């Protein structure tokens, strides 16, 4: 009688470039890894991404891929505060995660999976550090940071923060955008200048964009425009209709197939 092989899951710590200790989960397949995958969650979530990332990690392990998912600073069990997050800091988090995978899973190609907030940053990283990213998966990617954090917020008018919100920011060092996520001055200043959409055409890694992978404030038009801007091999998948209530299974299937593909 054959034995069923299962993946191994370990809770570990990944050190960021600035010394922060980030809580992470490393999932390894029972066989020799064919791929390595770094998973980045969205704003206000954790490395579990509402239960989706563990399912994706298990499916990937079944197809021979090691995965690493981590809590962003100020999220879950990681050190740091949300208001200290910056887009540059998130780029370095990606770098630290990829370095950990290269050290522990050598001689494998690496895929990057990012949801929401981290989508635009992941795209920017892939554009600038092309040799480090073999394949890219963006789920409900937030590409237009200024639109999200400034233009769409009632506390901003003409690119200036109103007086009540400015007082709150001065007193607390943060502005709450939702019950689970707050931003600080670093992020609010960076979004005026760092625009991932402008570098999408530089991405070389085959890129999958999935829109409708769970609830999202990102408009579908943003994902469509991102797909149109790509010059690499790419695909846009829109989860619509009845699938919206049961999105995890189809997204896991299409994401895993994209990551494991040989070309």
What does this structure look like?
By secondary structure, the chain is of the alpha/beta class. The chain has one domain: Rossmann fold, CATH 3.40.50. It contains eight helices and twelve strands. An eight-stranded mixed beta sheet has the order 1-2-4-3-5-6-11-12, with helices on both faces. It has a two-stranded antiparallel sheet with strand order 7-8. Strand 7 and strand 8 form a beta hairpin. Helix 1 packs across helix 8. It is globular, with a radius of gyration of 18 Å. The model has no long low-confidence stretch (mean pLDDT 94).
Strand content: 15-25%
Tell me what the CATH architecture is: 3-Layer(aba) Sandwich
Q: Would you report the number of β strands?
A: 12
The CATH topology name reads Rossmann fold
Class inferred from helices and paired strands: alpha/beta
Shape descriptor reads globular
Please indicate the count of domains.
1
For the report, how would you describe the main beta sheet?
A: 8 strands, mixed
Mean pLDDT: 94
What letter string, H or E per element, gives the SSE order?
EEEHEHEHEHEEHEEHEHEH
Distance between the termini: 36 Å
Number of helices: 8
Q: What are the low-pLDDT stretches, counting only 5+ consecutive residues below 50? A: none
Q: Which range best describes the helical content: under 10%, 10-25%, 25-40%, 40-55%, 55-70% or over 70%?
A: 25-40%
User: What is the CATH superfamily classification?
Assistant: Alpha/Beta hydrolase fold, catalytic domain
What strand line-up does the widest sheet have?
1-2-4-3-5-6-11-12
**What is the class in the CATH system?**
Alpha Beta
């Amino acid at each position: 009688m054959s034995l069923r092989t299962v993946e191994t899951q370990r809770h570990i710590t990944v050190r960021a470039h600035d010394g922060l200790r980030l809580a992470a989960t490393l999932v390894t397949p029972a066989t020799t890894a064919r791929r390595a995958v770094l998973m980045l969650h969205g704003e206000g979530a954790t490395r579990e991404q509402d239960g989706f990332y563990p399912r994706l990690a298990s499916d990937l392990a079944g197809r021979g891929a090691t995965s690493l998912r981590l809590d962003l600073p100020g999220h879950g069990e990681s050190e740091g505060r949300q208001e200290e997050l910056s887009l540059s800091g998130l780029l370095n988090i990606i770098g630290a995660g990829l370095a950990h995978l290269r050290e522990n899973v050598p001689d494998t190609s690496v895929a990057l999976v990012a949801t929401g907030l981290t989508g635009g940053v992941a795209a920017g990283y892939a554009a600038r550090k092309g040799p480090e990213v073999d394949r890219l998966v963006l789920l409900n990617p937030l590409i237009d940071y200024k639109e999200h954090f400034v233009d769409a917020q009632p506390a901003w008018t003409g690119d200036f923060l109103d007086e009540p919100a400015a007082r709150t920011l001065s007193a607390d060092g943060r502005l709450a955008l939702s019950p689970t996520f707050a931003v600080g001055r670093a992020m609010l200043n960076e979004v005026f200048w760092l625009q991932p959409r402008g570098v999408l055409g530089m991405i070389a890694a085959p890129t999958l964009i999935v829109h409708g992978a769970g609830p999202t404030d990102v408009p579908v038009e943003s994902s469509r425009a991102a797909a149109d801007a790509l010059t690499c091999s790419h695909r846009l998948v829109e989860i619509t209709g009845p699938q919206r209530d049961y999105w995890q299974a189809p997204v896991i299937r299409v994401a895993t197939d994209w990551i494991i593909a040989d070309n």
